[in-house]
Design brief:
The structure is a single chain. With 388 residues, this protein is an alpha/beta fold. The chain has a single domain (80-372), classed as 3-Layer(aba) Sandwich (Rossmann fold). 34% of the residues lie in helices and 23% in strands. The chain contains 13 helices and 14 strands. It has helices spanning 34-51, 64-67, 87-102, 107-112, 137-149, 164-169, 172-179, 186-189, 227-232, 253-261, 272-283, 327-346, 357-364, and strands at residues 7-15, 70-75, 80-81, 84-85, 121-124, 157-161, 182-185, 191-198, 222-226, 235-245, 249-250, 292-303, 315-324, 374-382. Strand 10 and strand 11 form a beta hairpin. Helix 3 crosses helix 5 (137-149) and helix 10 packs across helix 11.
Length: 388
């Protein structure tokens, strides 16, 4: 049963919309020859059909271009207390957000607008930092409840990340047991030698990489995709935290998915230039980016320093969840949020760690936009700190 709220609505629109051209056909056309009339109609009517821009859809945007620029943010101050997520308010906020994003009136219909009951849904989380700093189980619980309401079978819902052990430490085993869904690690599922990202950069192979222990020409140049994506998952819901990363600005939707989905990643880690090139190219693999149906930012808490080490003294409560089809737009907004929160806390914006090279490369590859003028950001804030 969906809980209905009274919300204070604030919409900030940052997208310049195109104009439909109005073409006038001469009223004296009847006095011209039929042949000339046909020419006039061809010259006037055909361009109108080509240039016509339909009105925006009330729910999911109707075209890929407009869809990728839309960001929905929902906010409720009740979702955290002393940096601890409150499960029920978080789930309710998640349900409300997906309905606003989809334009549907209930969470089941909202999720069915993105997936089908035939899909195997992979909920990608960022679990390495743990439940306080990484993706929070309370947010994922809301997604699972929505998928169950949409009649997705429990055995077709997989919460996953790079390593199963990290999922277990972050509390996702308990969550999976509670709802009867699965958890899985990309590494633990094995790597598919038929699907890979290739780069001239040689890697330092480690145990667990597909080519570890092998020798020969080209060994170490490929990063192989997990079999979890090539053999099982058909749709990805990508959920990342609002957490800084000194090399790429934020442990966001692009970085989190790309680095968890392939092996032989040590060759990129810690080098901003290498990551800026590799991450967008890996995300663009058909087994990854083409299967993402929704990107979500768990913005309940923003940690603006410390990366994967939990540092509550370098954190602030934001109490938001953000939704978009555009991972680049979400990530650039996250970098800006991190910069603002850091500056407000200690006066230092930390420009050396607010790197957007990766995001600019992703935009060049048309994975999304970094241009605020091409974004349509809708923010819905709860009117008070107590539920009606």
């Amino acid at each position: 049963m969906d809980v209905m709220f009274r919300w204070e609505f604030l919409v900030a629109t940052m997208q310049a919309r195109g104009n439909t051209r109005c073409l006038n056909v001469s009223r004296n056309a009847l006095f011209y020859s039929l042949f000339l009339g046909i020419l006039l109609l061809s010259a006037c009517i055909a361009p109108a059909a080509t240039d016509f821009e339909p009105p925006p859809h009330k729910g999911l945007p109707s075209t890929p271009t407009s869809a990728r620029s839309r960001v929905v943010i929902v906010e409720d101050g009740n979702t955290t207390v002393a940096f601890k997520p409150q499960p029920e308010p978080v789930r309710n906020l998640l349900h409300y957000g997906i309905m606003k994003f989809s334009g549907m009136t209930n969470k089941a219909a909202a999720w069915r607008s993105l997936i089908s009951t035939q899909d195997v849904i992979g909920i990608k989380v960022f679990s390495a930092p743990g439940s306080q700093v990484g993706t929070r189980p309370a947010v994922v619980a809301g997604i699972i409840e929505g998928l169950l309401a949409a009649r997705v079978p429990t055995n077709q819902i997989i919460v996953w990340d790079r390593r199963l052990s990290e999922l277990q430490r972050a509390g996702f085993t308990d969550l999976a047991n509670e709802y009867g869904v699965r958890i899985s690690g990309a590494l633990d599922s094995g790597w598919d030698e038929a699907a890979y990202y290739e780069s001239a950069l040689l890697g330092q192979l480690v145990y667990g990489d597909l080519e570890f222990g092998k020798e020969g020409p080209g060994i170490g140049r490929k990063s192989f995709v997990t079999k979890l994506l090539t053999k099982e998952v058909t749709k990805i819901i990508n959920v990342s935290p609002l957490l800084n990363n000194n090399s790429v600005g934020v442990c966001g939707n692009l970085y989190s998915l790309a680095m968890a989905s392939v092996d032989n990643t040590i060759r990129f880690q810690g080098d901003a230039r290498k990551l800026a090139q590799a991450v967008p190219e890996i995300y663009a693999l058909p087994q990854l980016g083409d299967r993402v149906v929704l990107n979500v930012v768990d913005a309940l808490i923003c940690q603006y320093e410390g990366e994967q080490i939990s540092r509550l003294h370098n954190s602030t409560e934001v109490n938001q969840i953000r939704f978009s089809l555009d991972p680049v737009a979400l990530d650039i907004l996250s970098v800006q949020e991190i910069r603002t929160r850091r500056k407000n806390a200690d006066g230092n914006p930390g420009s050396q760690t607010n790197r957007i090279d990766l995001l600019e490369n992703a935009a060049l590859m048309e994975l999304g936009t970094t241009d605020l003028k091409r974004m349509e950001v809708e923010t819905y804030r709860k009117a008070s700190r107590s539920f009606p």
